[in-house]
């Protein structure tokens, strides 16, 4: 009888440790995200699922064209691409992106631009 209680207690401890560890990982390191909308097409699609690294920008700064997730409201996260960094001057001329006067390609928009050009708005 004592061996059964010991075995049961070991299982309970293992499950509790796993739950606490999963909670800590979820809260501080990684989080599941569901893409809601088409604003990031064609890179990310509506209803795509992803795992987000929550500690990356505590180690280093975000870079131009990184995709980030941020809290927009208390109950809503947004997924966006960084185009400008602090102090940058952003401009669109003739359907071309300029950052601080330098032109940048946006290959992630090519498919979407073609769909818009070929179809109704």
TrEMBL record:
Name any Gene Ontology BP term: signal peptide processing
Q: Which key words are in the record?
A: Hydrolase, Protease
Write the Enzyme Commission number(s) for this entry. 3.4.21.89
Q: Chief localization class?
A: membrane
- Statement: the UniProt record of this protein carries the keyword Translocase: no
What is the recorded membrane topology of this protein? Answer: Single-pass type II membrane protein
Q: Does the keyword Protease apply?
A: yes
Kindly give the InterPro entries that the UniProt entry links to this protein: LexA/Signal_pep-like_sf, Pept_S26A_signal_pept_1, Pept_S26A_signal_pept_1_Lys-AS, Pept_S26A_signal_pept_1_Ser-AS, Peptidase_S26
One Gene Ontology cellular component annotation held by this UniProt entry:
plasma membrane
- Please list the residues that make up the active site: 39, 80
Question: Localized where?
Answer: Cell membrane; Membrane
Provide the Peptidase S26 domain boundaries: 8-116
The UniProt transmembrane annotation reads none
Q: What's the short name of a Pfam family annotated to this entry?
A: Peptidase_S26
Task: State a single Gene Ontology molecular function.
Answer: serine-type endopeptidase activity
- Please give the catalytic activity noted in the UniProt record: Cleavage of hydrophobic, N-terminal signal or leader sequences from secreted and periplasmic proteins
Q: Which domain of life is it from?
A: Bacteria
Q: Which PANTHER family match?
A: SIGNAL PEPTIDASE I
Family to which the UniProt record says this protein belongs: Belongs to the peptidase S26 family.
Name the UniProt record assigns to this protein: Signal peptidase I
Q: Which organism's genome codes for this protein?
A: Bacillus wiedmannii
Designated gene of the protein: lepB
């Amino acid at each position: 009888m004592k061996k059964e209680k010991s075995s049961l207690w070991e299982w309970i401890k293992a499950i509790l440790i796993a739950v606490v560890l999963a909670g800590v990982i979820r809260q501080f390191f990684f989080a599941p995200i569901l893409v809601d909308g088409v604003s990031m097409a064609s890179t990310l699609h509506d209803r795509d699922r992803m795992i987000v690294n929550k500690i990356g920008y505590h180690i280093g700064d975000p870079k131009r064209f990184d995709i980030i997730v941020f809290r927009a409201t208390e109950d809503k996260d947004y997924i966006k691409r960084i185009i400008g960094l602090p102090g940058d001057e952003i401009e669109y001329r003739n359907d071309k992106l300029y950052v601080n006067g330098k032109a940048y390609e946006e290959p992630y928009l090519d498919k979407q631009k073609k769909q818009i050009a070929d179809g109704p708005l």
